[in-house]
Amino acid sequence: MFIEDDELRGLYQAASTEHIEAIEAGLIYLEKHPGDRQQLQALLRAAHSLKGDSRMLGVEDAETVTHQMEDLLSEVEQGERVLTSGLCDRLYTGLDAVRKIAHTAVTGEQTDVSVFHVLAQLMAAEDSNTPATTADLRSPELDEAVPIDPKPTLIQVAEDNDPDLAAELHQLLKQSPPDDDQPKPTKGLIASPVSSYQVDTVRVEAAKLDQLMTQASELAVTKLRIAQRIGEVEQLATLREQWTADLLAQQLSLATLKQQLSTTDAGLVDQVFQVHQQRLSALGFQIEHLKAQVGEDSTRLDITANQLESGIRNLRMLPVAGLFQLFPRMVRDLAKQQQKQIELVLEGTDTLADKNILEQMQAPLTHLVRNAIDHGIESAAERMAMGKPETATLRLRAFQLGSSIAIELTDDGRGLELAKIQETALRRGLHTKAELDRMTTSQVQSLIFAPGFSTRTQVTEISGRGVGLDVVRANVERLQGTIQVRSIPSQGCTFQLTLSSSLTTTAVLIVEVNQHPYAIPLEFVDKMISVTPGQIFTMEGHPTITEQDQPLSVLWLRDVLELPAEQDRRKTERTNIPCVILQIGSERLGLFIDQLVDQQDIVLKPQSKLLKRIRNITGATILGNGEICMVLNPQDFLQSTQGVADLTFFEHLSGTVTSKVLLVEDSIPIRTQMKRILQGAGYEVTAAVDGQEGLEKLQVEHFDAVVSDVEMPNLSGLEMTSQIRQRQEYQQLPIVLVTTLAKEEDKRRGSEAGANAYLTKGNFDQTILIDTLRRLIAS
Questions:
Q1: Which CATH architecture has domain 658-778?
Q2: Bridge partners of residue 539, in order along the sequence
Q3: Rounded distance, CA 324 to CA 319, Å?
């Protein structure tokens, strides 16, 4: 049956949804606390209201099923039936059928519900159908029924919105048959006059709020454009001042010429200058007035737009309770299906988030919950053998995290097994054994988000269908969020989803690369620093800087975006390089840019549906000057950087003054490797095969430092160092000895020869070599 009247259909949709959710939540609670008579009475009232609303609007099937459910609950209340798990299963079946029938009534979409079979299931005999005693059902403190407020009926909903419609429904109710009779659809309602009319609440379609929010957010661009108009007015004022000064200078320069003119002609000249001065004065007044008006309008628009956007955003903000209430029933059913005992704990249900976020987070959270039940939580027997409580705890928590909202799903199950994750990564060819050995625990755990990744060898009905956690990550990233996993073997696992509380505007950092603006979401920006070329060195073949006493990988943003390198950069522009340090989950990355431009809130324009997802790009925005700016996706950067040629990194610094190093080493393999390390750190390297050749090259070419072995033919490194120090012009030349001789006596000999640093090859670390060279050359 489809409800023809638009307004009645909308009211029934809202009321039936509310009653169905109340019944489902009440059943879940009573299954664990069957003695709570107050909750049982609330459940009966919700069922009765749902039955009455369905009867009034002619939704006969919903009324019939709800009536049977109400009878069963009444028997429980009177002590004639026990609320067992099996009875709850039958009531859930009836509730699911009512939900489908109500959906058909408001959408017209047909369902496959067989009321006959549903009623048969509801009235089926039950093994444990032993009548309960009063003591079994009642708590001592609840012997007397506690009056509670019933859930609002359809008429009450109408009274809150439209008293005229409520009067019509009252009239309809008088004409409708009794409870046990079959309802008859009624057409042609006639309105009754109402003396007072006041609307306190109005139902607004979510799509209309979305449209208003988009339009309000567009004002952010208008605010920027008007702010730029103030700057343009100031430019006009400056131009007028220059014009006035030029006119005065011309008047003074013509003073001599005026003496040669007749009185009449000189008067004409003065008159011309006077007219220009008057017009310039009037122009100055108009410019100042315009400047004041534009400033005032800009301020008023800024205040009004912010209030409007904030007000509409607050209308869209809803508590996460609406999202969380989807999971108690799911956890109960899946736990029963897998014969596991699971207690679901919901926390932070009053945390607010944008309605779009709540809607789009249902699928990722559902996937995570199902995975936790199937993969993470052990059976009761396994838990008891491990010394754990027989009942597992699954905790779903929401909380505010700055301007973002965080949702955590935690279980106390078996946790992630790192060995299995590494084995799967090797089997699928995601990483080599050497790469896996270098990864941190966090990096290995994050591999579970790779496409199609699964450590399970069996396909189950709950999970393991080839749709892995990469889908969850993709959905979260589409909401401009991040997902992280933390796990302790045998103790449990936590997934944390961090999302912006609003999707309408995004705070970004505008940077310039190749004379084009790019926007980086501010939530990924840790800090901004300035780096000199001398601070850059290589570690394991990757360009690196030291930040907070820790090595940090760095790259040019243009390389990540695969843009061409600029050819016209002047040398002075590379002495200090702006670097944006990103925090992407547990990983950090430094990106070199041409310059910082601004920090502002932007309206994100998503990519066209005609395009596939573009790597590194989230969408675009329009800046205040009308220029289109691409919004970057930092979460793609970690994958994109794997394809950047690290050894060409320092080609971008070709405009800088590069330090020259003399490398003296007799071993060809070691000399080749050391040369690569030094060149990778940005040094210009000249090689010599022994100490004698090193001295000869030093006499004909200037070097900023010498790196040398000790044991070499013809002339050793110690002998070469001593001879270098004998010459006055080389007294301050940095000399670093790198050798296998590691005794204290050897180090003392190196110091006596005049070496500034003595590094041993046994525990050689290229980072120490580069840091030492950088420090000695800079001093």
A1: 3-Layer(aba) Sandwich (3.40)
A2: 542
A3: 9
**What is the per-residue pLDDT across 200-253, written as a single tens digit (0 to 9) for each?**
566 677 777 777 777 776 776 777 777 778 888 888 888 888 888 888 888 777
Q: What pLDDT does 203 receive?
A: 67
Strands 684-688 and 660-664, by their bridges, are parallel
Beta bridge partners of 508: 521, 600
pLDDT tens-digit series, residues 417-441: 888 888 888 888 878 888 788 777 8
* The pairing of beta strand 660-664 with beta strand 705-708: parallel
Cβ atoms of residues 20 and 102 within 8 Å: yes
Q: Which residues pair with 498 in a beta bridge?
A: 406, 482
Distance between CA atoms of 521 and 506, rounded to whole angstroms? Answer: 7
For domain 6-175, give the fold.
Answer: Four Helix Bundle (Hemerythrin (Met), subunit A) (1.20.120)
Q: Please name the fold of domain 321-496.
A: Heat Shock Protein 90 (3.30.565)
Task: List the Cα angle 747/753/757 in 5-degree steps.
Answer: 50
Q: Which residue has 């009624």 as its token pair?
A: 186
Q: What are the domain boundaries of the chain? A: 6-175, 206-317, 321-496, 505-652, 658-778
Q: How far apart are CA 405 and CA 498, in angstroms?
A: 6
Strand order in 505-513's β-sheet?
595-603, 505-513, 516-521, 628-632, 617-622, 605-606
DSSP one-letter string for 651-707:
GGGTTS---EEEEE-S-HHHHHHHHHHHHHTT-EEEEESSHHHHHHHHHHS--SEEE
Note the maximum CA span of the chain: 129
CATH number of 505-652: 2.40.50.180
Full-model pTM: 0.56
Under a CB-based contact definition with an 8 Å cutoff, are residues 294 and 226 in contact? yes
Going by their DSSP bridges, the two strands 516-521 and 550-556 should be labelled as unpaired
Beta-bridge partners for 497: 407, 483
Distance from the Cα of residue 21 to its chain's centroid: 30
Q: How far is CA 511 from CA 90, 249, 650, in A?
A: 61, 43, 21
Contact 6, 57 (CB under 8 A): no
